[in-house]
């Protein structure tokens, strides 16, 4: 089994360009299934989940061409729907959670879609109900094959409708939007997710000929069109990678420059780092993090300890809470980390305690961190 061996105690210096966002890449790559014309996507990250999805689309008949290290051309002119029922598809699809987002495009363009129960990272229960309830609202029939552990949707035609989502699921909203762009009539989605990556998907679909309004809000209106064409799209930089490097610089007292961060799309992330006492400068579209020997956590106005919690966008992304927790171990002051959206993301805390961190795991969702103010380095362990 492969492993990482990390030798700590070193300061870093230099600059880096963040890769494209995985969560956006998975959405916009699935969207190429909506048109037989060529779609070119830039800043595609070279990571396992994205590469597996591209391979999966290739198996479905999508012509893929790697133009350069970060740019691909896709042409979904001839799709082999029979591949969906093969063992090869079941094996690949079940290992990739993002595969669920091929359902909306397939349903919209071909009237049917099929996927095995998808896998993904183990961070807690993540329901797929929003996807299928949305498809049903548009007129699709939904079946779950218990024996094969697979989902199937089908429809002779889709019809736009008003729907209020029970949860603001990002992938659920994306899937419903991709199905609705080719539906007859108007679809209104209230309590829609509005993350920057979902906004990017909607902008890409509009450039293909879709008619989506309300982008950036939780109320989307979609006027169905007869067909979509090709386009060229550029993926945003990955905000999780950007936040991780800011935290890495703070923890190690390093000086780094993160280039081309699309600062306007980072939401509450920069402000939360500042509440942690971490200094940085915004220079054009770069973030410059100077070397900092210590950082002190702010308290609330009434003197109570700082609480950092996640929420659907425009709240703080849950993907960075683990980074803030680790940063807090070496801060001056105390922080309460409250992971509201997933129940298994704090179960690495026991490893940090073994390394010397002062953390109380209150319950599966909350951890109180008493920072060491870099007075005591965390010790290495084997895990």
Structure commentary:
- The chain is an alpha+beta fold and 383 residues long.
- The chain has two domains: 22-234, UDP-n-acetylglucosamine1-carboxyvinyl-transferase, Chain (Alpha-beta prism); 237-370, UDP-n-acetylglucosamine1-carboxyvinyl-transferase, Chain, CATH 3.65.10.10.
- 28% of the residues lie in helices and 22% in strands.
- The protein has eleven helices and 19 strands.
- It has helices at 22-31, 48-60, 87-94, 103-110, 129-137, 170-180, 196-207, 239-252, 269-275, 321-328, 349-354, and strands at residues 13-16, 38-42, 63-68, 71-75, 112-116, 141-145, 150-154, 162-164, 186-190, 211-213, 219-223, 231-234, 255-258, 281-283, 286-289, 306-309, 334-338, 359-363, 366-370.
- The strands form five sheets. Strands 1-13-15-14 form a four-stranded mixed beta sheet, with helices on one face.
- Strand 8, helix 6 (170-180) and strand 9 form a beta-alpha-beta unit.
- Helix 1 runs parallel beside helix 2, helix 4 packs parallel to helix 6 and helix 8 (239-252) runs parallel beside helix 10.
- The radius of gyration is 22 Å and the shape is elongated.
- It starts with 12 loop residues before the first strand and ends in a 13-residue tail after the last strand.
């Amino acid at each position: 089994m492969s492993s990482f061996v990390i030798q700590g105690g070193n300061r870093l210096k230099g600059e880096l360009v963040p890769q494209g966002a995985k969560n956006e890449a998975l959405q916009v790559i699935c969207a190429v299934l909506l048109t037989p014309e060529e779609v070119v996507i830039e800043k595609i990250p070279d990571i396992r989940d994205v590469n597996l999805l591209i391979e999966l689309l290739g198996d479905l008949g999508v012509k893929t061409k790697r133009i350069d290290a970060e740019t691909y051309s896709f042409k979904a002119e001839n799709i082999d729907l029979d591949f969906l029922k093969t063992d090869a598809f079941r094996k690949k699809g079940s290992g990739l959670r993002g595969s669920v987002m091929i359902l909306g495009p397939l349903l919209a363009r071909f009237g049917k879609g099929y996927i095995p129960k998808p896998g993904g990272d183990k961070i807690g229960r993540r329901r797929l109900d929003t996807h299928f309830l949305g498809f049903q609202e548009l007129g699709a029939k939904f079946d779950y094959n218990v024996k094969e552990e697979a989902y199937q949707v089908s429809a002779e035609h889709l019809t736009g409708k008003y729907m209020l989502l029970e949860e603001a699921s990002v992938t659920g909203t994306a899937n419903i939007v991709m199905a609705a762009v080719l539906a007859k009539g108007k679809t209104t989605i209230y309590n829609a997710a509005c993350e920057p990556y979902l906004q990017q998907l909607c902008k890409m679909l509009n450039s293909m000929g879709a008619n989506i309004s309300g982008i950036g809000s939780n109320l989307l209106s979609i006027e169905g069109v007869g067909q979509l064409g090709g386009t060229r799209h550029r993926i945003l930089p990955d905000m999780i990678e950007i936040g991780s490097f800011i935290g890495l610089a703070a923890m190690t007292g390093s000086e780094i420059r993160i280039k081309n961060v699309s600062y306007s799309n980072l939401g509450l992330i920069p402000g939360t780092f500042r509440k942690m006492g971490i200094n940085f400068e915004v220079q054009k579209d770069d973030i410059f993090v100077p070397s900092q020997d210590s950082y002190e956590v702010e308290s609330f106005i009434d003197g109570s300890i700082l609480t950092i919690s996640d929420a659907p966008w425009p709240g703080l992304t849950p993907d960075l809470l683990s980074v803030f927790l680790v940063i807090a171990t070496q801060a001056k002051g105390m922080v309460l980390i409250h992971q509201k959206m997933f129940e298994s993301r704090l179960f690495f805390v026991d490893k940090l305690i073994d390394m010397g961190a002062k953390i109380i795991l209150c319950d599966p969702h909350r951890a109180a961190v008493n920072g060491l103010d870099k007075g005591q380095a965390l010790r290495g362990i084997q895990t």
